[in-house]
């Protein structure tokens, strides 16, 4: 339930509203003046504010103006007498979302408050999505808004992206994991006529069937157990912009059918709802799967495939553009050095040779992770082969053409991986001056997990929990 602030100088009405909303499960704070209400809001970001219009000192309009100055997204409802509806309209012009006329029944108040809280929830969702988009765009700005690389496959892809961005056609981005499919989707949005609209992402593989349907199309209150209020789906949130459906090949058959209808009719129905809502959304989808093979196997609808496949884009794996490895590595040094290790400005020839001879089964994402890890341990101004993860720099663990470690003698792969883990922990432990909490931070693991590893590899005695220095 929500935290609601009531501002009213009439004791009986204030207490009555407090009782009604408390019985509805809300947490209510009540004050008797506009100044007190403003002070309370500065301490606690209430989800909804209910304020009387006519009060001594700071009236409801002044309260609304002051609250909007503090937080433009705040949801304010004003309480007014029948004869002052014109004043209530003025309050709405100042930013109040609705008004309620005295006298009113408890159920009217509850309905108005529920409507206001739904609006507040929607605004928070939009704010979160906007913040997430801004963060991704700031990160993408480091790549000048496009894929990094001068190779012929990348340049050809960039030309295709620029042409596809100008249209409003549905795009299917194909490529192995880690090749940059989401970055391409963002490029399509940023260079399209929809660039000022929202860019909304749905990771289809991360959601169960029931959750995915609700995430895409929204749901009405009471549609299923736990649906305590209406939720807007990602199609509604992306209206006027672009919806990116990552790993589209993972969606179940029931959702495929409903998605096909949206693409054909440009309209949705929330789960548990009867109202049909028009949406104006460009869909960009991505997958690492061979969708044609999935169609032949009966796991993916053929008609949906052709709806998604109007403009196909294929991202080349990193092993097919090895000439870009150095450019990408230098880019990732510049991207992460300010945050991880400011002294590092580049890579030496030994590090570049080690990076180039690896097959990169994890593609660009794997390369970025390797460079970031090397930055943690680097001591000089240039990354060296010794700074790189052991599986890149050690001849005993080089990769074959498939990207798998080349086994030495009869050593099984689990033994090799365990050895690499021990080496990584040893380097982090030394770099951190054997301070456990700092070692855990460098490795990105919990301190409890670190103690287990330190005991496992004999860096500390079993059961030892010494104090950190």
UniProtKB/TrEMBL annotation:
Residues in Sigma-54 factor interaction domain copies: 147-376
Any GO molecular function: sequence-specific DNA binding
GO BP, one annotated term: phosphorelay signal transduction system
Modified residues (4-aspartylphosphate): 52
SMART domains: AAA, REC
Alphabetic keyword roster: Activator, ATP-binding, DNA-binding, Nucleotide-binding, Phosphoprotein, Transcription, Transcription regulation
UniProt superkingdom: Bacteria
InterPro entries documented for this protein: AAA+_ATPase, AAA_lid_NorR, CheY-like_superfamily, Homeodomain-like_sf, HTH_Fis, P-loop_NTPase, Sig_transdc_resp-reg_receiver, Sigma_54_int
Boundaries of every Response regulatory domain copy: 3-117
The keyword Transcription is assigned to this record: yes
Descriptive protein name: Two-component system, NtrC family, response regulator HydG
Organism the protein comes from: Stigmatella erecta
């Amino acid at each position: 339930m929500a935290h609601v602030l009531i501002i009213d100088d009439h004791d009986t009405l204030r207490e009555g509203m407090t009782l009604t909303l408390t019985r509805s499960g809300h947490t209510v704070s009540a004050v008797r003046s506009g100044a007190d209400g403003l002070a309370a809001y500065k301490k606690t970001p209430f989800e909804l504010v209910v304020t009387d219009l006519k009060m001594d000192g700071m009236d409801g309009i002044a309260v609304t103006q002051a609250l909007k100055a503090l937080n433009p997204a705040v949801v304010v409802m004003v309480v007014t007498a029948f004869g002052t509806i014109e004043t209530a309209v003025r309050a709405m012009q100042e930013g109040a979302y609705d008004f309620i006329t005295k006298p009113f029944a408890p159920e009217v108040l509850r309905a108005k408050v529920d409507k206001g809280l739904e609006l507040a929830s929607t605004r928070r969702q939009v704010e979160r999505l906007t913040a997430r988009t801004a963060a991704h765009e700031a990160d993408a700005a480091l790549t000048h808004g496009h894929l990094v690389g001068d190779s012929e496959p990348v340049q050809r892809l960039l030309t295709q992206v620029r042409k596809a961005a100008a249209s409003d056609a549905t795009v299917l981005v194909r490529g192995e994991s880690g090749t940059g499919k989401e970055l391409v989707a963002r490029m399509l949005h940023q260079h399209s006529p929809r660039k000022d609209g929202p860019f909304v992402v749905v990771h289809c593989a991360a959601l169960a069937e029931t959750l995915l349907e609700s995430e895409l199309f929204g749901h009405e209150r009471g549609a299923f157990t736990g649906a305590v209020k209406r939720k807007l789906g990602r199609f509604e949130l992306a209206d006027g912009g672009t919806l990116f459906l990552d790993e589209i090949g993972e969606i179940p058959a029931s959702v495929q059918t409903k998605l096909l209808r949206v693409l054909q009719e440009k309209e949705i129905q929330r789960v548990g709802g009867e109202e049909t809502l028009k949406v104006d959304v460009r869909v960009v989808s991505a997958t690492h799967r061979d969708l044609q093979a999935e169609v032949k196997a009966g796991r993916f609808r053929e008609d949906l495939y052709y709806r998604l496949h109007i403009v196909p884009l294929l991202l080349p794996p990193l092993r097919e553009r090895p000439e870009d490895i150095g450019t990408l590595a230098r880019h990732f040094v510049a991207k992460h050095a300010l945050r991880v290790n400011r002294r590092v400005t580049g890579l030496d020839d030994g590090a570049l040779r080690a990076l180039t001879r690896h097959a990169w089964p994890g593609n660009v994402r794997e390369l970025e992770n390797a460079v970031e890890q090397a930055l943690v341990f680097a001591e000089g101004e240039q990354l060296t082969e010794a700074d790189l993860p052991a599986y890149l720099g050690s001849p005993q663990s080089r990769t074959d053409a498939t990207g798998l470690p080349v086994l030495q003698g009869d050593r099984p792969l689990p033994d090799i991986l365990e050895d690499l883990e021990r080496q990584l922990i040893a380097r982090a432990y030394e770099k951190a001056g054997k301070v456990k909490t700092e070692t855990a931070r460098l490795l990105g693991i919990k301190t409890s997990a670190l103690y287990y590893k330190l005991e496992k590899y004999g860096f500390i005695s079993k059961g030892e929990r010494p104090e950190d220095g």
